[in-house]
Design brief:
Helices cover about 25% and strands about 20% of the residues. A six-stranded parallel β-sheet has the order 3-2-1-6-7-8. The chain has a two-stranded antiparallel ribbon with strand order 4-5. The longest helix is centred in the first third of the chain and has 14 residues. The relative contact order is 0.19.
Length: about 190
């Protein structure tokens, strides 16, 4: 378990049915295995007075993010569907930041990107953490090579002391080795991978 205190936040990234359940439309191999790790860390974080924040894809039915609309991904995490719900065994005991709500693209819990103009804008996550006095984040969830990686890179860029829990993440691996390359990128950026 990571060390937690009131200046730390645990970020639980996208542990949703479409990613974590084998029946999900964009199932991440072994994604369900992060749930026990997440629940252990959530308990430890809350016991130490740390904050727990969850990110969640929350897409409209059509978005340039989806293959059917010109993107690269199958339809997933459409708002108000089973696929967008958190995996039922996951303890949800904190605030939720939803991304992709207006059809935006991007993978980070901190930013979204307009799929047409490429313009980035912030989600509420950074302000939420700053207002709570958070200086350090611990990150786990799905998937290593997309939403976890981009959330971690943004956290480091924004000046948060950032730790990634290797046992609490799994990769999509569209190309063999993507997960390992993502770990290297996070480490090279200054995140601690433990």
């Amino acid at each position: 378990m990571a060390d937690y205190d009131p200046r730390t936040a645990l970020l639980v990234v996208d542990v949703q049915n479409d990613f974590a359940d084998p029946k999900g439309s964009l199932y991440v191999m072994e994604g369900e295995q992060v749930i026990a790790v997440a629940n252990r860390e959530i308990e430890g974080a809350l016991s130490a007075g740390a904050r727990v924040v969850y990110t969640a894809d929350w897409h409209p039915e059509s978005t340039p993010h989806f293959k059917k609309d010109g993107g690269i991904w199958p339809v997933h995490c459409v708002h108000e569907t089973w696929g967008a719900e958190f995996e039922p065994k996951l303890e949800v005991r904190g605030e939720v930041v939803r991304t992709g709500v207006g059809g935006e693209d991007g993978y980070s819990g901190f930013t979204v990107r307009d799929p047409v103009t490429g313009e980035e804008r912030k989600t509420p996550l950074e302000d939420m953490l700053r207002e709570a006095g958070v200086e350090r984040v611990v990150v786990l969830g799905l998937a290593t090579d997309y939403c976890v990686k981009e959330t971690v890179l943004d956290a480091v860029r924004l000046g948060f002391d950032t730790t990634v829990l290797r046992e609490g993440i799994r990769a999509v691996n569209l190309q063999p080795g993507d997960g390992d390359r993502a770990l290297d990128q996070m480490s090279d950026a200054g995140a601690k991978v433990v």
